[in-house]
Amino acid sequence: QQRVLERRFFILDIPPDVSPLSVSCEEDIGFQYSMEIYFTEFLHWQPSWRTYDWRVADFIWIPQCASKVYWHIKEDLKLEHEAALAKADIDYLRPVVEWARRHPAHARFHGANFFTVYSMDL
């Protein structure tokens, strides 16, 4: 007998104006650093797990791609590793987190049902 997942996920799409470093989170940048992207794709492939109304969601997925932002900063702006990590954190990840905290869905469980994957291991 096949078990059915009875939890519903809402994908909280991040508006492009949340961060000045917004990049497309759809392009694969290689297995190790694309887990943030793959996880979003996985949820898109599971329509029975998804809801399009955050008010009934058990979990809220934040589809950020800090790893891709880091590589963009490091390569395009020619920053050293630590400087690129700091810039990705300050100018991308923190604004995304703050935006998510202000979303009405966050107040429902004080963010306890919000989650994301951070694939940076640098």
Description:
The protein has 122 residues and is mainly α. It is 40% helix and 7% strand. The chain contains four helices and three strands, in the order βαβαααβ. A three-stranded parallel β-sheet has the order 1-2-3, with no helix packed on it. Helix 1 (35-44) links the parallel strand 1 and strand 2 (59-61). Helix 2 (66-76) packs antiparallel against helix 3. The longest helix has 22 residues, at 81-102. It is globular. The model has no long low-confidence stretch (mean pLDDT 88).
From the structure above, extract its key features.
122 residues; mainly alpha; 4 helices; 3 strands; 40% helix
- SSE topology string: EHEHHHE
Main-sheet strand order equals 1-2-3
Count of runs of 4 or more consecutive helical residues = 4
Mean pLDDT: 88
Shape: globular
- Sketch the major β-sheet: 3 strands, parallel
List the helices and strands and how they pair.
Layout: E1 9-11, H1 35-44, E2 59-61, H2 66-76, H3 81-102, H4 104-109, E3 114-115
Parallel strand pairs: 1-2, 2-3
Short description:
The protein has 122 residues and is mainly alpha-helical. The chain is 40% helix and 7% strand. It contains 4 helices and 3 strands.
